[in-house]
Amino acid sequence: MPKSTHALKIALAGNPNSGKTTLFNALTGSNQFVGNWPGVTVEKKEGTLKKDSSVLVVDLPGIYSLSPYTLEEVIARNFLIEERPGGILNIIDGTNLERNLYLTTQLLELGIPVVAALNMYDSVKRHGDEIDISKLSQRLGCPVVPISALKGENTDEAINAVMKLIQSGTATKPCRFDGHIEDYITRAESLLPSGVPIGVRRFTAIKLLERDSKIGEAFSDLPDVSAIVAEMEALLGDDTESVFTNERYAFVTNNLHNAFVKSAYVSSSGKVDKILTHKVWALPIFAVIMFLVYYISVTSVGTLVTDFMNEGLFGEGFEFFGKEVPGIPVVIEEALENAEVAGWLQGLILDGIVAGVGAVLGFTPQMFILFLMLSFLEACGYMSRIAFILDKVFRRFGMSGKSFIPILIGTGCGVPGIMASRTIESQRDRRITIMTTTFIPCSAKLPIIALIAGAVFGGAWWVAPSAYFLGIFAIITSGLLLTKLKILSGEPSPFVMELPPYQLPTVKAILSATWERVWSFIKRAGSIILIATALVWFLSRFGFQQNEFVMLDEDSLDGSFLAYAGSFLAFLFKPLGFGTWQATVATLTGLIAKENVVGTLEVLYGGSFAAHFSAAAAYSFLAFNLLCAPCVAAIGAVRREMNSNKWTLIAVGYQTAFAYVCAFIIYQILCLIL
Amino acid sequence: MTLRDVELGKSADVVKLNSEGVIKRRIMDMGITKGARVTVNKFAPLGDPIELTVRGYNLSIRKADAALIEVE
To answer: Nearest-5° angle of CA A565, CA A569, CA A575?
Structure first.
């Protein structure tokens, strides 16, 4: 992205659930770039203003504070301190002023011009609350612009206010605390080396006094202020971190006095919540909702559309209003033949690329429907209630209710699932969640389940549920196991979570959230899966015969490079019942993308899969492939979120070992029974 | 008395936080600071965690953490 061409950079900061994403979309429209934050490579969104492409808006992660404890907070802090954007647009949920303004008190300290965009102003008025904008603006010492991000009201005015403030050159004044405390800050500030720029001296001094563990990373040669801290704590009778937090909230409440009058409005959200988190009904309702989500996306509508994609669009063809329409492979085959393309190239394109990529793309409707529903559950506020309802269950296995959200999203795709683990504060819990998320079958593993269920077990109803059950079992066992490990002991898990009011999300918001996820899936199909399938095809169709490099025909694939490689490793899977080179290769290609497992089996066995597997071996194969190391995209996500090669190796190694043991036990027991 | 002992539907003012480290900071960041008024709204179906109203919004914390918050 051409960064240098942007004349101005504005950061968009605010609490989670404050409408930040909606405002970002309203301001930038389609001029967005999704990248990664440096180092941690958490998703970073930037975009240029719709009306002025020289202004770059950077969407900071949703945060409650600038504390050093969560990944998102650290990312936001580092960006603000190191990259020094020209201005900050701080979005504030007008229906939740106190807690939102707490973050504002911290943003005002950074020496960067701040404008507060008071969002959901229409709801504020509807609720009968009264906010005196000019009084609030005067007391906070920064411009306040009432907006409605959802309706796009006043959003331009808000960004204009930031630009005007930047142009005027007036520095934003930080909020002032009690006299004593100000003295201590001044003392700490005077000790700072000259390397700390003027704008961030107050912020740095406060962080030092708070014993902030991360401030040392931002600046070198910071002074030792422990004497001041000790004096302060002795005088005020509380630790400095608490003192500053209390002061900030005191500043907010004092300044809201007379500027904000809350009405006795009771929202309908409470009534909905009474049912959804009801003592008796909460769990049954949850079960029904989950059943519906998977029934609709996987079984009914999903299958219908996927069948059309696989057999119609990416197959023989389909009927459209009584007219025969050929499938894509048919069309391409004809084109290739007409162009008299060489046989091997036709094979590569049709049996390799089109078959492989088609198998994956054929899966997009199912993913789309699943993500559509998951996005809805997230946006309407139910997701956090699920964590609330299930926390006690998960705690028993050493995790928190928040661990359920990544696992739930992981049923669609492990990559966003692993990314969703970011909301978990405790590093221990986050690591365990990342390590276990991919145990639950993602949508790419569904074809494996379908294949085994159909080809070996005659379409038995219990195969698919048993796969999910196996995933849940693996998560629970791992939770119990991993929390016992010394390297994962660490901090006890906090469960402090906002329960936002329920809201009916807009169709647009849901669709764009869904599309974002589906699109990254499609892009993957067009890149990594395309290369992988081409490679598998090449390695399985070429080999040496009588010391000559030749292209093999369907019956002599045993001589291919892939067969050699597979046979070499096949002994590993003998104890699991599927020690053939074909099954070994299928498992290996599954590392590139799980959809490949089915594709590879089809290529190598040509449809006679069932003849080569006993029931016990087939189920063992299924179990191993569901639980072992995830695809490279998911391993990449693990690497990003763990931010450590060592932990990535531990995670992948653990998953594979766990899968091996599970499959071994399953195979041995099944062999005894059957 | 701690926040854990507050009956359903009743309110209390925070006096002191006995928790430590990350949890303490997180709880304070979310607005449970000295003098803040907290209402116990609901218990989760399995009895834990609890839902509170503080500073005009709803927050969920565990009973074990609530037991470390002194109130009156």
So the answer is: 150
Name the minimum distance, in Å, from the CA of B44 to any CA of chain A: 6
Q: To the nearest whole number, what is the mean pLDDT of chain A?
A: 85
The CATH code that applies to domain A179-246 is 1.10.287.1770
A241 — contact with chain B (CB < 8 Å)?
yes
Chain A: residue whose CA lies nearest to B26: A496
Positions of CATH 3.40.50.300 in chain A: 3-168
Could you tell me which residues are beta bridge partners of residue A64?
A: none
- Fold (topology level) of B3-71: SH3 type barrels. (2.30.30)
Residues paired with A130 in a beta bridge: A261
Q: What is the pLDDT of residues A586-600, one digit of tens each?
A: 898 888 778 778 878
Compute how many other C-beta atoms are within 10 angstroms of the C-beta atom of residue A291.
Answer: 11
Task: Tell me the three state secondary structure of residue A90.
Answer: strand
Please state whether the peptide bond connecting residue A492 to the residue before it is cis, i.e. omega within 30 degrees of 0. Answer: no
Q: Which CATH class is domain A3-168?
A: alpha beta
- Tell me if chain B has a CB within 8 Å of the CB of A661: no
Could you tell me which of A116, A119, A118 has the C-alpha nearest to residue A149? A119
Average pLDDT for chain B = 93
Q: Where in chain A is the domain with CATH 1.10.287.1770?
A: 179-246
Could B23 and A496 be called an inter-chain contact, meaning their C-beta atoms sit closer than 8 Å?
yes
| Nearest-5° Cα angle at A297, A295 to A303 | 95
Handedness of CA A393, A399, A405, A407 (dihedral sign): negative
- How much of chain A exceeds pLDDT 90, in percent? 35
3-state DSSP call for residue A380?
helix
Contacts 24+ apart (CB under 8 A), A586-591: A586/A625, A587/A621, A587/A624, A587/A625, A587/A628, A589/A532, A589/A536, A590/A448, A590/A625, A590/A628, A590/A631, A591/A629, A591/A631, A591/A632
Residue A152: what residue type? G
